[in-house]
UniProtKB/TrEMBL annotation:
Sequence segments annotated as region (Disordered): 184-207
Pfam families referenced in this protein's UniProt entry, alphabetically: YceD
Alphabetized InterPro entries for the sequence: YceD (IPR003772)
UniProt superkingdom: Bacteria
Protein name according to UniProt: DUF177 domain-containing protein
Basic and acidic residues: compositionally biased ranges: 187-207
Length: 207
């Protein structure tokens, strides 16, 4: 069993005004502090950053259908040049929160799909927690490979310099196809020096 929901928590919402009347609607706008770890390794919403929520709560036979949009600032780094970047995120989502007794009714028409049953979210004392739905919506909306710009050239593979700051940046690199021949040529020159005849004046045997 999960811990009881706290109606004072910023991402917990009350549906009592709907009164289980199918077709009843309620709209909510709320600014909340972003929970921890709302993102992926390279980009996400910083903890306590402001998330703007616009929600539409609709009462249906099975429970409450929640449709909404979340807007929040993103912070991360470019995967090519590692420079920090800032973006604005807008993520849409929709989720059904079922009434607790809807579980009993659903068992009568059970299809045997255990995975689907595990994913069902339920109201608790007419409250629902939006955090897991918000987290999924934000993460699925994030770019997996964020870049500071589409044509970011990245970093130099040799020295790590940011290529956008120096478009003409380059290094003199010897052609690896000639590397072995160059080594052989150097060895031959060293051998020629060792075998070169000495001047007669340098021969210690000559008197």
């Amino acid at each position: 069993m999960n811990a009881r929901l706290d109606h004072r928590a910023p991402l917990v919402f009350d549906t009592r005004e709907l009164g289980r009347r199918p077709g009843a609607l309620k709209r909510i706008s709320r600014s909340v502090a972003a929970p921890k770890d709302l993102g992926i390794e390279v980009i996400g919403v910083r903890e306590d950053a402001t998330v703007e929520l616009d929600l539409r709560l609709e009462s249906v036979m099975e429970g409450v259908l929640v449709t909404g949009t979340a807007r929040a600032p993103l912070s991360g780094e470019c995967v090519r040049c590692l420079e920090p970047l800032e973006r604005e995120l807008e993520a849409d989502f929709q989720e059904m929160y079922s009434y607790p007794d809807a579980d009993d009714r659903s068992r009568e028409a059970d299809t045997g799909d255990d995975a689907e049953e595990e994913e069902t979210l339920f109201l608790e004392a007419d409250l629902f927690d939006l955090e897991p739905v918000l987290r999924d919506a934000v993460v699925l909306s994030l770019p997996l490979q964020p870049v500071c710009r589409e044509n970011c050239p990245g970093l130099c593979a040799e020295c790590g310099a940011r290529l956008a700051d120096d478009p003409d940046h380059q290094h003199d690199v010897a052609d690896i196809r000639w590397a072995s021949l160059q080594g052989l040529a150097d060895a031959m020159r060293d051998g020629e020096k060792d075998n070169a005849p000495r001047d007669r004046g340098d021969d210690p045997q000559e008197k």
